[in-house]
Amino acid sequence: MAEYWYFNEAFAEEASSYFLERPEPVIVMDFTIGERDFVNAGNASSQIKMALKRLGVDHDILRRIAIASYEAEINETAHARGGEITGNIYPEFVVIKFYDKGPGMKDIEQSMVPGFSTADEQVREMGFGAGLGLPNIKKNVDVLHIDSEEGGRTLLEFMIFFRKKS
Ligand SMILES: Nc1ncnc2c1ncn2[C@@H]1O[C@H](COP(=O)(O)OP(=O)(O)OP(=O)(O)O)[C@@H](O)[C@H]1O
Ligand SMILES: [Mg+2]
C-alpha cells in the first residue's frame, strides 16, 4: 500500500472537505531538515509550537501538536535523507507536512505497527528506534495521511483541530 489515511470520526466531515479543497493557509512556516542532523532535529516542531502558543492555542492541544510534530521530524532526520517541513496554520486547525528525500517505506501498514523499527545502530544510540513514533503520531492527531513507497519520497502530513472533541 502506498497511501495511508486515518480520520478521527469527530472531525471527519470537516477534515475531508479541507483535503478536497486545500484552502490557502493564514500563516505558513517552512523549514529545511538535514539528513542525520540530530543537533537541530526538533527545532522546526518547537518553532511551530511557539507560534501556535502565541496565537492562544489550548495547552492540551499544543501538547498533542508538539508530540506528533517532533516524532515526524525525528523520523525525517533518522529514516530519510532530510527534507522539508511546512506548518500551515488556519483559524481552526493546523496542518503540518513532512516531505523527505526518501528512501520511502516498504509497507506503511507495517511501519504503523507498534514496535516495528528499521532504525540502525546510530539512530538507536541517539535513543530512538522503539518503533513507537508513528503509533504515537496517530494517537495524537485528528487526521494522518502518509504517502510513501519503497525507493520514493515520503509525505507525512497531519491535521489537528484547535477545539476539543465535543
Ligand atoms: N520518513 C520515513 N521514511 C522512511 N521510513 C520511515 C519514515 N518514518 C518512519 N519510517 C519507517 O517506519 C518505522 C517505524 O517508525 P516509528 O517512528 O514508529 O519508529 P522508529 O522511528 O523506528 O522508533 P521511535 O520513533 O520509537 O524512536 C521506522 O523504523 C522506519 O522503518
Ligand atoms: Mg520514529
Could you walk me through the main structural features you see in this protein, from its secondary elements to its overall organization?
The chain has 166 residues and is α+β, with helices and mostly antiparallel strands. It contains 6 helices and 6 strands, in the order E-H-E-H-H-E-E-H-H-H-E-E. The protein has a 6-stranded antiparallel sheet with strand order 1-5-6-4-3-2, covered by helices on one side. The radius of gyration is 15 Å and the shape is globular. 30% of the residues are buried. The chain binds adenosine-5'-triphosphate (ATP) and magnesium ion (MG). Residues 71, 74-75, 128, 133 line the site of magnesium ion.
Question: Quick recap of the structure?
Answer:
By secondary structure, this protein is of the alpha+beta class. It is built from 6 helices and 6 strands, in the order E-H-E-H-H-E-E-H-H-H-E-E. Adenosine-5'-triphosphate binds next to helix 3 and helix 6.
Question: What secondary-structure arrangement, pairings included, does this model have?
Answer:
Layout: E1 3-7, H1 12-21, E2 27-33, H2 43-54, H3 59-78, E3 83-89, E4 93-100, H4 108-112, H5 121-125, H6 133-140, E5 143-147, E6 155-161
Antiparallel strand pairs: 1-5, 2-3, 3-4, 4-6, 5-6
This protein binds adenosine-5'-triphosphate (ATP) and magnesium ion.
Adenosine-5'-triphosphate binds at residues 71, 75-76, 78-80, 100, 104-105, 111, 116-119, 128-134, 154.
